[in-house]
Amino acid sequence: VKVKIPFGNKYLDAIFSVPEKKSRYGVILTHGAGGDMNFPHLVSLAAYLASHGVLCLRFTCKGLNIAYRTKAFKTVVEYVKLSEDYKLLGVFLAGRSMGSRAAASVIRHLSQEDDDDFIQGLVCLSYPLHRPKLQSKLRDEDLLFIRCPVLFLSGSADEMCEKQLLEGVASKMKAPKKIYWIDKANHGMAVKGRTTDDVMEEINAQVFSWLRENIELEHK
């Protein structure tokens, strides 16, 4: 279901992937610095979640300014929260690369403003912990404030997320967290000798099983 979400004086393009049975929980998903909501990994994950009973909304927000992206993500969360069509008990925020930074920032902001439990957790696909070869400056400030469960899915060869550094940040986090490493994958989740579909199947299954652990989803 295609929707346009009001954002300031414009609209954000978004698509709901709707499960057959009514879903009590949803996932809001956005893309990285390049691309849009039709980035293959997002399309694949949204379709997988919907087919397993989880409502998924993916949206496009262009722009390389993290504050702008965060504001847009927050607007989408409010939109879903007030939706009459899909009355959800809660949502998980998910993003790829820069989109996961925006998601983390939204959760930090909202947790300081209100204490309702609408946001259930955070899924970070290829979280960009640092710029390539710039390991001294970590983008970890939002992560350390988050209290809800967090799942990181990163490639073990991600040039923007060195394994030991992410594990170090995770050890300082107060939130319940899990890191799942995709063996030999780079920042774009490409692995030599494996197809994109094959890698996505692994990622999608991990995301869903983690979601299921965090909410008792009605099994089909």
UniProtKB/TrEMBL annotation:
This is TEX30 protein. It comes from the Eukaryota. InterPro entries: AB_hydrolase_fold, KANL3/Tex30_Abhydrolase, NSL3/Tex30. It holds the Pfam family Abhydrolase_11. Residues 26-209 form the KANL3/Tex30 alpha/beta hydrolase-like domain.
